[in-house]
Amino acid sequence: MACVTRTALARNTEARLRYLAAQIHPLGERPLFELFREVEAGSDLLQTLERYAKLEPLTEFISDLGGHQLPPPVRLVGGRR
Fold first, then answer.
1. Structural domain boundaries of the chain?
2. Cα–Cα–Cα angle for 16, 37, 58, nearest 5°?
3. pLDDT in tens, 2-44
4. Which residues of 23-42 are buried (b: 16+ CB within 10 A; e: fewer)?
5. Model pLDDT for residues 53-70, shown as the tens digit of each residue
């Protein structure tokens, strides 16, 4: 069995992250926001990235339904009690 050096492992990890980023980026800002929320809530980063990258074939479908955009921010003005 070949010994994997730390440098080779780091290069492999970087290559995987670049691939996942390229798969996730076309999904749009809303899926990226949801990914960030999951990671912030404690989800494993690599598992979450892998899961979202699998959505890449649905990019056009997500976009056609408007799922690629974040909704406008909500502002409450003069709420009632």
1. 6-64
2. 60
3. 566 778 878 888 999 999 999 999 999 999 999 999 999 999 9
4. bbeebbeebbeebeebeeee
5. 999 999 999 999 999 999
79 contacts 54 by C-beta, under 8 angstroms: no
> What is the model's pTM?
0.77
C-alpha of 36 from chain center? 7
**Six-digit token string for 59:** 């990019």
The burial of 49, by beta-carbon neighbours within 10 Å (0-12 exposed, 13-18 middle, 19 or more buried), is given as: buried
Place of tokens 């996942």: 20
The structure tokens listed for 42 are 């404690």
Q: CB–CB of 35/49 below 8 Å?
A: yes
Residues comprising the chain, all counted: 81
